[in-house]
Design goal:
The protein is mainly α.
């Protein structure tokens, strides 16, 4: 009658073994899953880093462009300022020239007036001289007349 007992024992042993292997398999699956998840996380992390780097590069590029634009603007405004200065200088010179011209014409006019005055006076003097000589002549004639008589 001991064979039945042995059979039962063997059966129980087999069951235990099965259970053990089942558990082992489950553990293995769990481990695999865990490593898969870890890998996924790593991939995600990498992607995130890549994106961040790209964004940083973009930002750098943007700021570079902005700086370049600012420099260009500065240059432009400087040039504009220089142009304006030149223009001012030119207009100043033009004004000065105009003033000089006016001054010159004024002086010329004054000279002309003086000249006229002088010639007028000369003419008057000439007339007076003529008058005097006429009178002298008349006096001389009268004298002659008187001495004749």
């Amino acid at each position: 009658g001991g064979s039945k007992k042995r059979k039962k024992k063997r059966e129980a042993e087999r069951e235990k073994q099965k259970e053990r292997s089942r558990r082992k398999e489950a553990e293995g699956k769990k481990k695999k899953e865990r490593s898969r998840r870890k890998e996924e996380e790593g991939k995600r992390q990498k992607e995130r880093g890549r994106k961040k780097e790209a964004e940083r590069k973009k930002q750098k590029e943007r700021s570079k462009r902005k700086e370049a634009k600012g420099k260009k603007q500065k240059k432009r405004s400087k040039r504009k300022e220089a142009k304006e200065k030149k223009q001012k200088e030119r207009s100043k010179r033009k004004e000065a020239k105009g003033k000089k011209q006016k001054e010159r014409s004024k002086r010329k006019e004054a000279k002309g007036k003086k000249q006229k005055e002088r010639s007028k006076r000369k003419e008057a003097k000439g007339k007076k001289q003529k008058e005097r000589s006429k009178r002298k002549e008349a006096k001389g004639k009268k004298q002659k007349e008187r001495s004749k008589r």
